[in-house]
């Protein structure tokens, strides 16, 4: 593809824009590559104006001025990318009631909160669900429809692109933004590639076919150090999304969810000690609640400063090591801390045995992977990894929201763990 640096870009109407390329006066025909340019919606059938006049003072006066950001400050290496951003800018300027948001993975722990939050903000939501959804397929169609009152629900198979596209077409609404909260429910090797990569990619393609110009991806902070299959699958999709010149994107990489830190509440409440690996300080995280993360994801639909950005995000307050999590839990229950510290080498031993056995019994592949997932979370922090030092950086991990781990522990000690079940992902 021919490349050009766009130095000025200005929206003239919802369907046309002017821009300067390499700061030369130019016109459409002098850039042959533009003739074959297929523009993303809403410019698909629009005329293209190229203008050497850099109108520094734009006559648009909208608050978050999209083109002001572009004007002369950034140099865009791909013209199509630039136009895709402009298209996203148009979406960003649409009012919520004119914006159709497709949510895939809507029936998951985070997806449910995203549907609620996006509806609350006044967007039109199309939630994609399976006919039986939730942990263990416990929810039927009626329950899903009741759960998502206010949203349109599209029952579809995201793992099959053609039938997924057909289901969306039958739904009939054009789509502006896709939000993906899809994830393998097991974290197994094949399922991770099927969902975190293939089904998520299907959502991109189906969304594009229905006119989407922005894609918000729920990923994970741990992809910074990809040792596990689900992380590699997520990263592959992340990089393909970033390379796609037909759509703009926001990649959200959260730290640990509350559910992942609540696994020992019931046992500790019943009198057992809190179990941790090593000295209990091998890792740390800044946990974030479902509601706060859903709010951050919803921000990505409209916030210009979140477009084409990889966004690590944690909850409010400090980073907690497992030792501190255990101490906090005992404090919440008004009990004296009682901990068991397990050498991490025990996990390494178990993993090496499973890895050996997998050579003869391929069916143990997932068991070995689950062991590695457990080992990973025992020793790796869910914080921003500083590429220069190779160390995790609690201060460099952005905080968002208001729900604290302390308040979460208080709630689950009082009310139980309903809604915080790990389901098939018993290890994370
Ligand atoms: N746990 C953590 O601490 C943590 C931290 C950071 C990031 N993350 C990441 O956050 C993401 C979302 O997590 P979550 O806990 O919300 O996930 P979840 O509760 O397991 O939800 C997964 C969603 O994907 C859908 N899905 C799974 N397999 C499917 C299939 N074969 N066909 C159709 N849909 C399928 C599920 O639909 P059904 O309801 O029909 O099964 C559900 O809507 C994951 O990518 C995870 O890696 C997690």
Based on the model shown, name its key terms.
alpha/beta; 14 strands; three-stranded mixed β-sheet; seven-stranded parallel β-sheet; binds NADP nicotinamide-adenine-dinucleotide phosphate; 428 residues; disordered N terminus; Rossmann fold; 15 helices
User: What is the CATH architecture assignment of one domain?
Assistant: 3-Layer(aba) Sandwich
What structural class do the secondary elements suggest? alpha/beta
The averaged pLDDT comes out at 83
Low-confidence stretches: 1-7, 21-40, 42-78
Major sheet: arrangement of strands: 6-5-4-7-8-9-11
**Distance between the ends:** 42 Å
| Highest-level CATH class of one domain | Alpha Beta
The rough form would be described as globular
Fourth-level CATH superfamily of one domain: NAD(P)-binding Rossmann-like Domain
What is the tally of beta strands? 14
What summary fits the major beta sheet?
A: 7 strands, parallel
Please count the helical segments: 15
CATH T-level fold name of one domain: Rossmann fold
**What ligands does this structure carry?**
NADP nicotinamide-adenine-dinucleotide phosphate
Helix content: 25-40%
Name the beta content range: 15-25%
What sequence of helices (H) and strands (E) makes up the elements? EEHEHHEHEHEHEHEHEHHEHEHEHHEEH
